[in-house]
Design goal:
The complex is a heterotrimer of chains A (383), B (189) and C (191).
Chain A: E1 22-26, E2 38-44, E3 47-54, H1 62-68, H2 74-79, H3 86-101, H4 107-138, H5 141-161, E4 170-171, E5 174-175, H6 183-205, H7 209-215, H8 223-228, H9 234-238, H10 245-248, H11 269-293, E6 314-322, E7 325-333, E8 341-345, H12 347-351, H13 355-359, H14 364-374, H15 378-382
Antiparallel strand pairs in A: 1-2, 2-3, 4-5, 6-7, 7-8
Chain B: H1 4-19, E1 47-51, H2 67-71, E2 77-87, E3 93-103, H3 112-116, E4 122-124, E5 138-139, H4 141-144, E6 145-147, H5 148-154, H6 156-181
Parallel strand pairs in B: 1-6
Antiparallel strand pairs in B: 1-4, 2-3, 3-5
Helix pairs in contact in B: 5-6
Chain C: H1 4-14, E1 21-23, E2 33-36, H2 41-50, E3 58-67, E4 70-82, E5 85-97, E6 100-109, E7 114-122, E8 131-133, H3 142-152, E9 156-158
Parallel strand pairs in C: 2-7, 8-9
Antiparallel strand pairs in C: 1-2, 3-6, 4-5, 6-7
The chains are: A alpha+beta (383), B alpha+beta (189), C alpha/beta (191).
């Protein structure tokens, strides 16, 4: 006789004992949940009373696979974590291995890394703004404007690394291949066009009454909670906390570039949108500086072996400011060719900790926008 | 004025809409499959094996060293050595693969096999119209081997560089053999 | 900026008698960590968060690690009687390292810009003594990450507000990230 499964609990709803509450499962097949993501939302009319995120539908056991593969073989798997921003995923992993093994990076490769990372940040934030507006009902127009710019950057990535999204470009100590002829000029043109695109985008959106009415005051994240809950990235800075890993850790060569870090005041959905627009403008500035100053030279130390990297036993935690937040890799080596422990610190997962706090009291339509403003990619949440 | 933001937005969409009738920068849609964008030179999809000359088996560069199969992150390659040895372009005796299978449904297209190959024998192809009814897509040696002329067609820069490097190595090997074969100067008695 | 030794001294001053151990890190990353006893871990964590000079208000990464039992062969100096004379000789002795599960916390201070401070908590063994205190009441960012460690490694966090599986489905009955995990179905044959 198989025992019946336990009754589902709904703790903490005693106040609403006299109301009719409706429990809705939003997802995992849902156009607005940004992937296979499910939210069990308990509603009193249209107001959210309780929200439980459920995920794991895209769990691919990346960390266990990495324990069986060599360090080099994990690089293509990191592309597939935050599948939109493959270059920054590569960089975070390669940075951690370089910390673990004590490898130096060629200077030209550092500049190339900054250039592709900022290009990634540009199209990630543009697409996020587009997706957020689509969640609000703009039916794709801002999204397609953003995707037009993204196509130009993906063309750049394809001519550089061979693939538009799964770039597999960084290597330990440098990058896989050098910039092809004419790439720098093309990238400079993309950066210049991007400023024009941002002006158009802001003219289209930032003063729009509907956007403002739907996003101002919605999904407020207080400062103290943001820090305590480990929220990082634009969501943290929109709540007014000045913490950008590029400025704090100064990894790579970010200390050579002049750029500002935009901060928000209220921490609502509009602030998270606006912080991303301003960050895009700062990224273009970094791009201009990097493209101007990139030195000639080798992109990798020719003595570094590609195969059979065996770092000495020890551990390292390396982190970067990915477009979603702080992306970190924690690696423990036992001296063998495969890591003993390989851990991805996913910004999207940890930013989701406060989803319920931000959604309580709002309508279910707002839940969709709040989730959109957190910017999650399920590949990273579930790994 | 209430509605000013909306009006500014309408102006932008109007500009895009009117511009799409004459401005090529706004006409970004490619009507696939009637129109196709030529892939960029560096674009990669799945690997293929290169052979020199006309005969796929005789000209195959692969020596079944199995480094690609060991380094493949997805473990999708199976390489089994043959027993017969033949001379390669440098004159060294090498075996050929008896079995070279790649499961294309598992292959990630990452290109690590190309990076680690010491013999320039496996390169990345650019075909992406690979859909078929059989989900497994296990390609064998006969499906994977494509000529060096094809390699020049899809990656002209890379193929030219590889050919030049191989020609240089052949020259060096021949020069070495010539000095070894020449009789040594006899000692003065 | 405080070094690990300075932080350890501060904790020792605030919590006298609590055993603290610095675990060195041989790699070039030079990120040594502090092993805390599970019993007082939550109080020490609160101290690390609230102490004005330390202010480690941001728990960045919470990881589980599985350390199964390992047999280590070491050369040991032993006094033996050889040919009637007592001499010191080297012998190959076997030693079993203890088996445990570990939770590693990477802490940073957003207020003071310092870090990382790495804290480790170890369980008694891998089978029945797998409980550790949850640090979620101190840092909310541990909430999902400790659930993940419970799901994939099997460490039970006492005091966690909602300890249930997060990535695997609810009725799943094993802990996949353990080193001795065997998947239920055989893997598909390689080509």
């Amino acid at each position: 006789m198989i025992a019946a499964p336990p009754e589902p609990q709904a703790p903490g709803l005693g106040d609403f004992a006299n109301h009719d509450l409706l429990e809705v499962s939003m997802g995992p097949h849902h156009p607005s949940t940004h992937g296979v993501f499910r939210m069990n939302v308990v509603l009193d009319g249209e107001r959210v009373v309780k929200l439980t995120p459920v995920f794991g539908y895209l769990h691919r056991n990346h960390e266990k696979i990495a324990e069986k593969n060599s360090y080099l073989a994990s690089i293509p798997y990191t592309d597939r974590l935050d599948y939109i921003c493959s270059m920054t995923n590569n960089w975070a992993y390669v940075l951690s291995v370089e910390k673990l093994a004590g490898l130096m990076v060629a200077e030209r490769a550092e500049y190339i890394r900054v250039i592709v990372a900022e290009l990634t940040r540009l199209f990630n934030h543009a697409c996020l703004a587009g997706f957020l507006l689509q969640d609000m009902g703009a039916l794709g127009t801002p999204l397609m404007y953003a995707f037009r710019e993204r196509e130009k950057i993906l063309d750049l990535f394809e001519s550089l690394s061979g693939s538009r999204m799964m770039c597999n470009y960084m290597r330990f100590g440098g990058c896989r291949c050098d910039l092809p002829a004419g790439w720098r000029e093309q990238a400079a043109k993309v950066a210049a066009d991007f400023v024009f695109f941002l002006d158009q985008f802001e003219a289209l959106l930032s003063e729009n009454e509907i956007l403002r009415a739907r996003s101002e005051g919605v999904g407020v994240l207080p400062r103290g909670l943001a820090v305590n809950a480990g929220v990082t990235g634009p969501g943290l800075r929109a709540s007014g906390v000045n913490y950008d890993v590029r400025k704090v850790d100064r990894y790579g060569i970010y200390d050579r570039f002049k750029f500002r870090v935009p901060l928000g005041e209220r921490g609502d959905v509009f602030d998270r949108y606006m912080v991303r627009i301003l960050e895009m403008r700062e990224s273009v500035k970094i791009l201009d500086q990097a493209l101007r100053d990139i030195p000639a030279g080798a992109i990798m130390d020719p003595k570094v072996k590609l195969r059979n990297l065996r770092p000495k036993p020890g551990e390292a935690y390396g982190r970067i400011e990915s477009p979603k937040g702080e992306l970190g890799f924690y690696l423990i080596s036992d001296g063998g060719p495969t890591p003993w422990r390989y851990r991805v610190r996913p910004p999207s997962l940890i930013n989701l900790t406060v989803l319920e706090d931000m959604c309580l009291g709002h309508t279910i339509a707002d839940v969709v926008i709040i989730l959109g403003s957190i910017d999650i990619v399920l590949g990273e949440v579930d790994r | 004025m209430l509605g000013r933001g909306l009006l500014r937005g309408f102006f932008e969409t109007g500009r895009n809409f009117c511009g799409s009738y004459y401005d090529p920068a706004r006409l970004t849609t490619v009507q696939y499959p009637e129109e196709k964008l030529a892939p960029q030179e560096n674009a990669r999809t799945v690997p293929f094996l290169v052979y020199d000359g006309e005969d796929p088996l005789a000209g195959l560069r692969c020596t079944a060293c199995t480094i690609c199969a060991q380094e493949c992150p997805a473990h999708c390659m199976e390489v089994v050595k043959d027993t017969e040895k033949k001379a390669d372009y440098l004159g060294k005796m090498q075996v050929k693969p008896r079995v070279f299978a790649i499961d294309m449904s598992v292959c990630m297209g990452c290109g690590i096999c190309v990076e680690v190959c010491p013999f320039d024998s496996i390169k990345m192809d650019q075909v992406f119209e690979l859909a078929r009814e059989d989900r497994r897509m296990l390609l064998q040696l006969k499906d994977l081997a494509k000529s060096n002329a094809y390699f020049h067609q899809i990656h002209p820069g890379e193929a030219a560089a590889v050919d030049e490097a191989r020609a240089e190595e052949k020259r060096k090997a021949q020069a070495k053999r010539a000095t070894a074969a020449a009789p040594a100067t006899p000692a003065i008695l | 900026m405080h070094t690990l030794e300075q932080i350890k001294d501060r904790i020792a001053a605030a919590f006298p008698g609590v055993p603290l151990e610095v675990i060195p890190n041989a790699s070039p990353a030079n990120q040594a960590s502090l092993l805390l006893p599970p019993g007082r871990a939550r109080e020490i964590a609160k101290f690390l968060r609230d102490e004005p000079e330390l202010r480690f208000d941001y728990a960045s990464n919470v990881t589980g690690v599985d350390w199964p039992e390992k047999t280590v062969k070491e050369k040991v100096k032993v006094k033996k009687i050889i040919d009637g004379v007592e001499k010191e000789a080297e012998e190959l002795a076997e030693r079993k390292t203890p088996a445990f599960l570990e939770a590693v916390y990477h802490l940073y201070s957003m207020a003071l810009g310092q870090g990382p401070l790495i804290i480790r908590l170890r369980t008694g063994n891998r089978t029945d003594r797998v409980a550790l205190p949850s640090l979620t009441p101190v840092w909310r960012s541990c909430e999902f990450q400790e659930r993940e460690i419970f799901d994939l490694f099997g460490i039970e966090f006492e005091g966690h507000p909602d300890l249930r599986r997060i990535l695997m489905w609810d009725n799943f009955a094993d802990h996949p990230m353990r080193k001795d995990y065997v998947p239920a179905e055989p893997e598909e044959a390689q080509p």
